[in-house]
């Protein structure tokens, strides 16, 4: 008996609602382009194409014009591009991208903002041959600023990703123990996320045992988990293209005095950072609130990275929560808060959640506990 399918009317309604959502985003982009003094935008970042359409944007470019949205791609993605019907004009290239894109841009005869940090020098050089240097205006961060504030659909996707990754960790913790290698733990966790509905891991999972947990960006190896030794796990899931990001630090059995102490400090620093989040807060001030707790405990030099970053279609987006960040937080931005203390040769502790900016302050979007008792396996 064939599988049941959704009624066509319901499918059409869902697609219409989705296209309306993408059109709203296009309006915001066009306003940003106008503020930059340009008529149109050349998009060379796949994530930005994905933000404006249901297409992944792989190996493609796009033009946001005053009255049109054009995606330039190739036959490998023909079926995926059918989903853009009613939303975008699709142009298929046969040769190098610039051979199709250059003449097309010239035909429209407008001034283009282009993503200077996402467009190669070679690509720009080829396009200038068709439209002239004056018709291409370098910009940075135009799409970044638009994407920093999440809409309701994006927040729903982020919550979905978080729910998947949390359930996967809980299932993983039921199975692992002393003797498991870092690679085995990371592989099992990714498997559980995929079984739970994830499109994949949001990034290469970090599973760091013992002294390796002091390495903030560690690649799992064959080191085995040991009783009374830390295990740091930094992981995330992808749902609807959106990426979540969390970190927990565990110990199999009792904590050593030193590791138990820094766990308490990091947890206090996490709460201080979340408490500093709110509409109008400045990124560097949020970072400072958390960093001050760690400094007062005597571990200032052992916290070497920024407090957090935005998340969305990319695992690292704006705004930044760092000592150099002048970003002003706005309602519905989503940031990570991830303080850590790292003691080379001993181990490290990092605790991280995804936090929504609201008029009432920072709201933790995650549900897994953070207390040291829960983290004692």
Describe this structure in words.
By secondary structure, this protein is α+β, with helices and mostly antiparallel strands. It has 2 domains: about 10-145, Creatinase/prolidase N-terminal domain (Creatine Amidinohydrolase, Chain A, domain 1); about 150-365, Creatinase/methionine aminopeptidase superfamily (Creatine Amidinohydrolase), CATH 3.90.230. It has 10 helices and 19 strands. The strands form 6 sheets. The protein has a 6-stranded mixed sheet with strand order 4-3-2-1-5-6, with helices on both faces. Strand 16 and strand 17 (about 345-350) form a beta hairpin. Helix 7 (about 150-175) crosses helix 8. About 40% of the residues are buried. The model has no long low-confidence stretch (mean pLDDT about 95).
């Amino acid at each position: 008996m064939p599988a049941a399918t959704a009624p066509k009317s319901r499918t059409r309604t869902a697609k219409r609602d989705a296209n309306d959502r993408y059109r709203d985003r296009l309006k915001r982009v066009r306003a940003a382009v106008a503020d930059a003094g340009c008529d149109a935008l050349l998009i060379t970042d796949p994530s930005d194409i994905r933000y404006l359409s249901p297409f992944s944007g792989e190996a493609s470019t796009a033009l946001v014009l005053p009255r049109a949205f054009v995606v330039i791609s190739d036959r490998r993605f023909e079926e995926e591009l059918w989903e853009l019907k009613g939303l975008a004009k699709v142009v298929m290239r046969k040769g190098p991208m610039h051979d199709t894109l250059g003449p097309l841009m010239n035909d429209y005869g407008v001034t283009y903002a282009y993503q200077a940090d996402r467009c190669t020098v070679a690509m720009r050089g080829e396009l200038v041959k068709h439209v002239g240097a004056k018709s291409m205006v370098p910009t940075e961060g135009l799409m970044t600023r638009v994407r920093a504030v999440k809409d309701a659909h994006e927040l729903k996707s982020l919550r979905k990703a978080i729910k998947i990754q949390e359930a996967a960790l809980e299932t993983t913790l039921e199975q692992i123990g002393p003797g498991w290698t870092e690679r085995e733990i990371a592989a099992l966790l990714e498997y559980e996320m995929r079984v739970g509905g994830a499109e994949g891991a949001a990034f290469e999972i970090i599973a760091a045992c013992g002294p390796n947990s002091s390495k903030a960006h560690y690649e799992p190896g064959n080191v085995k988990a040991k009783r009374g030794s830390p295990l740091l796990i930094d992981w995330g899931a992808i749902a609807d293209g959106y990426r979540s990001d969390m970190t927990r630090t565990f110990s199999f059995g009792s904590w050593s005095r030193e590791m138990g102490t820094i766990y308490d400090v990091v947890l206090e620093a996490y709460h201080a950072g979340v408490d500093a989040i709110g509409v109008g807060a400045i990124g560097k001030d949020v970072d400072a609130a958390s960093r001050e707790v760690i400094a007062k405990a005597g571990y200032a030099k052992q916290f070497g990275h920024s407090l957090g970053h935005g998340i969305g279609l990319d695992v690292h987006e704006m705004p930044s929560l760092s000592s150099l960040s002048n970003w002003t937080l706005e309602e519905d931005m989503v940031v990570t808060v991830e303080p850590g203390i790292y003691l080379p040769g001993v181990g490290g502790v990092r605790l991280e959640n995804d936090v929504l900016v609201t008029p009432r302050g920072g709201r933790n979007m995650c549900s897994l506990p953070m207390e040291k008792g829960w983290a004692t396996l």
